Amino acid sequence: MKINKILATVLALVLVAASIPAVSAKAADDYVYGTLAYLTYGEYFSSELGDSVAVAADGYDTITSATTSKYKSFVNSAYTTDESTGETSIYGISNVPVRIEKSVYEAAVAGTNTAVAELLNRGFTVSDSELSVYKEISSDASISAYVGLTNNDVAADEGSSISTDSVWGNYIVYIYANDGSALDSGKNIEGAYVTTTDGQSYPLYHSANLWFQAYEFSWAVEEDFTEPHGNNPYTASLTGLTGKTISSVTYIFKTTDENGNATFSKNTYNVGALKVKELLDDSSSVIATEANNTNNNTSDLTVTAPAGSNYSVASVDSLTEGTDYTVAATDTGFAITFAENVAAGAYTVTLTDDNYEDMTVSVVVSANVSEGDITIENNALVINNENVSLADFLAALSSATLTVDGTTISNGASVLFNVDGSVNLEAKTSGRGAKTLFPETGSYEVVLTVPGYGTITGTVVKTEASEENSEASEVANDEVNNGEVAAEEGDVALNGTSETTTEKTNTNDSAKTSVFVVVAILAVAAITGEEILRRKKRA
What we know:
Elements: H1 2-18, E1 31-40, H2 41-49, E2 63-65, E3 77-81, E4 88-101, H3 102-110, H4 114-120, E5 124-126, E6 134-137, E7 143-147, E8 151-155, E9 161-163, E10 171-174, E11 189-196, E12 201-204, E13 216-219, E14 245-256, E15 262-275, E16 285-288, E17 298-304, E18 312-316, E19 325-329, E20 333-338, E21 345-352, E22 359-365, E23 374-377, E24 380-383, H5 390-396, E25 401-404, E26 407-408, E27 442-450, E28 454-462, H6 464-468, H7 471-494, H8 507-512
Parallel strand pairs: 4-6, 8-15
Antiparallel strand pairs: 1-4, 1-5, 2-4, 3-4, 6-7, 9-10, 10-13, 11-12, 11-14, 14-15, 16-17, 17-20, 18-21, 19-20, 21-22, 23-24, 25-26, 25-27, 27-28
């Protein structure tokens, strides 16, 4: 009877023990916790993703940027700056939390474990307490994936997409969560990567791919691709994406709480299937004829594309197929016939293929006007054609060009007229470098070229009286333009071009205040592989 009770007690203890999660056999005080000044991109992503990461050769650990301030706002990036040129090399992730067995740490300090000592020699700050999230440094200096970091899977919205129409790279991806939640600021991204349907993962880099707006990122694969700032984006690790399908995008965010402790979040956005299509070379093209009353309002598209492609007309701006236009296949491409209700103007036609990038072409629908039907007289638009409406003509100005006294004014056509067709004598373009169309009293020769309506010329006269009576209009225009400038600057920030600067200190600055473990017999580990990858510009 006593033996049975003993066996029952033992069995109960075994069951209780089995229900307790496995933990390290060592006690917490057998480890040293702290912050390593940096890990190179190669070390960081290889430790986090293991064999599934697409590691590029040579320049994998370093990207370069000529941007002189934006990189400072990526608070988790590690970088150096050439003070003479202002060029910055971003080489990894800064201030990475780690844990090391105390015996291994002591051996590194003593100089008997040189591999770990080389890591610590970069700058290591010992923590006063245990860390809940960290990477484990083993005795052979290998580094583990994050311990204690839980991934949150999020379904992406149908609006998530990929396209090849960005000036910031050959490809751009937009990600939106289906619960309406917004991604945190891209400034706080520590690491990010995409995963394809074949299980391969590809790192994303601060400045080269990642922007302040985390929901969008871009990359270039063509040689010598140049973005609007004149930089050549880093391409080494993402060229292998071409032809594959992205199934998810993962972000690891790191911020600092009020006590100075690092806090983490990891989210994987399951985007379904975003195909990274093959790019086209200059041998591929699409050209279009004008649609007018002599060809039944039909535009013929001639398409030249790689053998085996299956291009089709995906859209014509915001028009509705079957109502506003119809499409028919031809021997050379497609014929698009526009309905009579479609206003004259320029329309962007997009052609899509299963494996190749989209192609676009502008199609002009003609208003079938004759010379003199539309003129500028007495500082007002005069339309002498009953088939042309003022509203349709003004709408077409968004794609028109304007020259005043022989000088082309960008975006000037859209502000040339008031809604009643009178010339806006106080008109200003919006955005940076805003320009006043008619700055002084006098006569101005205007040439307006409007797709579908032809070229309209005329003389605009600004008198002293109009200038004196324009003060209220000037104030109103300033308010409108200020709003437009603010909106444009918001758009610029949205596309990752903001030059916002913060007072955050880079890794190298913070490392100066760290507690360094210096091993006398070792040289400071040099950061190697720094390389500016300049690709040949696409013809």
